[in-house]
Amino acid sequence: MVRGRKKDMTIPVSRTIALQRDYRERKAKYVTDLEDKCKLLEEQNVRLIEEVKELRRIMGQREHIPESSMDLLNCRTEEAFGDIMKTLSAAMTSIENFQHLAEGQSHLPLFNSSSST
């Protein structure tokens, strides 16, 4: 039993050969790209495994830190996180204000040298 498509006798042989060659080149490039991607992902996986091991080691050491030190560390972390969130909120508000201004004045130039503030 024959597999695949029936041979199209209307296509010139040279064109068929060129199409086959192009297909093989595309397939080879695709396989090469997959191999490169696989190698990259394997390297990334090894790095991430090492990072997880290191973080687990650090977490194991944190268990030996006195409770008062952990409380102080948690308090400072929460303060820093709060400061970051305030800064991000202010930045987001500024960006939104700028976007509203830009949308409202989209027909005007962004910088007007004749106006003074």
UniProtKB/TrEMBL annotation:
InterPro entries xref list: bZIP, bZIP_sf
Coiled-coil annotated spans: 31-58
The UniProt record lists the keyword Coiled coil: yes
Gene3D superfamilies in the record: 1.20.5.170
GO molecular function, a single term: DNA-binding transcription factor activity
Superkingdom field: Eukaryota
Keyword Coiled coil belongs to the record: yes
Protein name, as recorded: BZIP domain-containing protein
